[in-house]
What we know:
There is one protein chain. The chain has helices spanning 3-31, 33-53, 67-81, 86-110. By secondary structure, the chain is mainly α. It has one domain. The longest helix is centred in the first third of the chain and has 29 residues, at 3-31.
Amino acid sequence: MTFPxxxxxxAGGFIFPFLIRLAWGKLVDNFGPIGGWxxxxxxxxxTWTLNHGVGLxxxxxxxxxxxxxxxxxxxxxxxxxxGDDVGKGIGMVINAILGGILGGFILYxxxx
Length: 112
């Protein structure tokens, strides 16, 4: 991977959690549950288009390391640095891993 691709991929990975942290809560505060749906559409849709449609990120085959991973790392680190309770986040990480394993097993069962 070339140096410009490294910089572009890091920028693409940064944009997603940054926008979530910046705008998601405000949209929910202003519009309630509909704000969460708007945030999901605008934030996830826009960053997906930038990263995959425009080609801001470079992927070399590990497709599972995608925007969800960037969102997790970015938001977890931001929470840790801002003094939030990291213990609650670790429990959610364990649940997410277990859910991913269960989802992978179910998909495996479909194709065996």
